[in-house]
Amino acid sequence: MKSSTTAQEVAGLAQVSQSAVSRTFTPGASVSEETRSKVLAAAKALGYRPNALARSLITRRSRIIALVMSYLENQFYPLVIERLSQKLQKQGYHVLLFISDLNEADGVLAEILQYQVDGIVMASTMLSSDLAKNCADSGVPVVLFNRVADTSALARHTTSSVTSDNYRGGRMVAELLLERGHRKVAFLAGLENSSTSVEREKGFNEALREGGGSVFSRAVGHYSFEGAQQATRALFAGVDRPDAVFVANDHMAIAAMDVLRIELGLRIPQDVSVMGFDDVPQAAWGSYQLTTVVQSVEDMVDAVVDLLHDQMQGEVRPRKVVIPCRVVERQSVRPAPGASPK
Fold first, then answer.
1. Residue 151: what are its φ and ψ, rounded to 5°?
2. Among 33, 129, 132, 221, which is least packed by CB within 10 angstroms?
3. 3-state SS string for the chain
4. What is the spatial distance between Cα 303 and Cα 164, in angstroms, rounded to a whole number?
5. Crossing angle of helices 76-90/297-312, nearest 10°?
6. End-to-end CA distance of the chain, in Å?
7. Chain segment 185-202, per-residue pLDDT in tens
8. Residue boundaries of the structural domains of the chain
9. Do the first three CATH levels of 64-164+296-324 and 166-295 match, i.e. the same topology?
10. pLDDT at 69
11. pLDDT of 283-313, one tens digit each?
12. How much of the chain, in percent, has pLDDT values that exceed 90?
C-alpha cells in the first residue's frame, strides 16, 4: 500500500477525471453515485487518503470552525460542543476547540486566526472591540453563543449572536414564584458583566415589581459551583431568610440546593423553592428535580450554523437571534395553592 498515492492515480484506476475524484472527497459537491462508487473503490485499493490541508490551499477554505469556551464546568456547554460538532461534521466541517479565560479571549483568538478558520463561535466568553476589529478585518465571521456583544459599539455592529430569550425567561420565573405565594424571593446572579445573567435578572426584577414585590436579597455566584455555595450561605445567613431563590443557571442551582439541604437542613420546596435556568440533564435527576427554564440547545445550534453559513457566503449584516424558552416544572417549587404535591 502506497502512502503517497495521488488523486491522479485514483482517477486512472477508476477511469474518471481527476476533478471527479476531487468532487467525491469534497463535502456537498455534486457527483453521481456510480462515479462515487468507482472513486471510493479505487481509493480503497490504492490506500488513497485526501489531503485536507492541500485542498484548503486550493479552495482557500479550511472547513474548520473554531469554538471558543471559557470553561466546561457548566454542564450546559458539553451539550453544546456535542450538538454543534455533530451538526457541522455532517456538513463537512470540523470543530477546533479552544479554552480561554472567562472574560477575554483575545490571546487565544490571536492564535485561532493563524489556522485560517472559516468561522468562529464564541461561547461563555466575551468579545473585545480589538478582537471584533481583527476578525472583521480578516473576513472571519464570528457568532456569539449564549452571549450578546455588549462590550463595544464595534463588536455590536460586526458580530452576530444567538441567545435564548433570557429576559422573558426571568419574567417567567418571577411570575411562577409569585403565583405560588412567594414574597421573599432572592436572586443568585452569575457574573455582573454577563449579558445572560443581566437579562435574566432584568426580566425577573421587572415582573416582581409588576406583581407588587421586589427582590428580597441578592448575591453573586460567578457561575461557579463553589461561588454559588458561598453565595447561598450568604443569602441564608440571617434569621429572616428567603422563601424562594432564582439561580441564574442550573449549575449554580444544584450547588445551592446541596447547601440548603445538606448544610442548612432546609426542605425543598417546603421551606424554600429553588428555580434555575438551562435545563441541563442533571436538573432532572431524582435527587434534584429542579424546576428550571429550558434553553433549546438544538434550536440554538441550528441558528448558529445558519448564521455561520450566511456569513461565510458573504452575508455580512450582523444578526441577533433570540430563541424562545419555557419553564419545565419539577419538584423544587411549591405546588399551586390547593394542588397536591407531585
1. -85, -25
2. 33
3. CCCCCCHHHHHHHHCCCHHHHHHHCCCCCCCCHHHHHHHHHHHHHHCCCCCHHHHHHHHCCCCEEEEEECCCCCCHHHHHHHHHHHHHHHCCCEEEEEECCCCCCHHHHHHHHHHCCCEEEEECCCCCHHHHHHHHHHCCCEEEECCCCCCCHHHHHHCEEEEECHHHHHHHHHHHHHHCCCCCEEEEECCCCCHHHHHHHHHHHHHHHHCCCCEEEEEECCCCHHHHHHHHHHHCCCCCCCCEEEECCHHHHHHHHHHHHHHCCCCCCCCCEEEEEECCHHHHCCCCCCEEEECCHHHHHHHHHHHHHHHHCCCCCCCEEEECCEEECCCCCCCCCCCCCC
4. 11
5. 50
6. 65
7. 999 999 888 889 999 999
8. 7-50, 64-164+296-324, 166-295
9. yes
10. 84
11. 999 999 999 999 999 999 999 999 998 888 8
12. 49
Set of cell numbers at residue 201: 435578572
Q: What is the dihedral sign for C-alpha 334, 220, 227, 325?
A: positive
Q: Which residues contact 239 (CB under 8 A, 6 or more apart)?
A: none
pTM given for the model: 0.80
**Fold (CATH) for 64-164+296-324:** Rossmann fold (3.40.50)
Is pLDDT of 175 > 60?
yes
β-pairing, 119-123 vs 64-69, is parallel
Q: Confidence class of residue 337 from pLDDT cuts 50, 70 and 90? A: confident
Superfamily per CATH, domain 166-295: Response regulator (3.40.50.2300)
C-alpha cell of residue 177: 414564584
Q: Quickly count: other Cβ atoms within 10 Å of residue 2's Cβ.
A: 9
